[in-house]
């Protein structure tokens, strides 16, 4: 499914959700100033998270190039760090509704049923558990106060 959407911004959003544990609202609310290319960090603002707390997540090296390309793609439109990283049109931020709709569309095209964008966060958490990462670290990375396994 992710491969089916590889030509658009949704692909990057789904990669951020699956490989960094971002919620869809956190991904669509990212701004240019939230991304630190040198240290491979993403600052998730407290207004975007369910916990009401901000956090910083590390993104994997495999995303460096696509994140830079996305930055370059829209840099000519925006000159300030507070502008959204993902846009739906001129000056219009992408919505979580659009993310859900696109996820369903590409899931249907790939013949995948029973998943939502939130499933990508579960994938992230499960991959960390399989790697032996302690539950407190996983909880902090996800920005949740209670982690249920």
TrEMBL record:
CDD domains assigned: DNA_BRE_C
Keywords (A to Z) from UniProt: DNA recombination
UniProt record, GO biological process: DNA integration; DNA recombination
UniProt domain Tyr recombinase: residue ranges: 1-149
GO molecular function: DNA binding
Pfam families: Phage_integrase
Keyword Lyase recorded: no
Gene3D superfamilies: Intergrase catalytic core (1.10.443.10)
Domain of life: Archaea
Keyword Kinase listed: no
Protein name: Tyr recombinase domain-containing protein
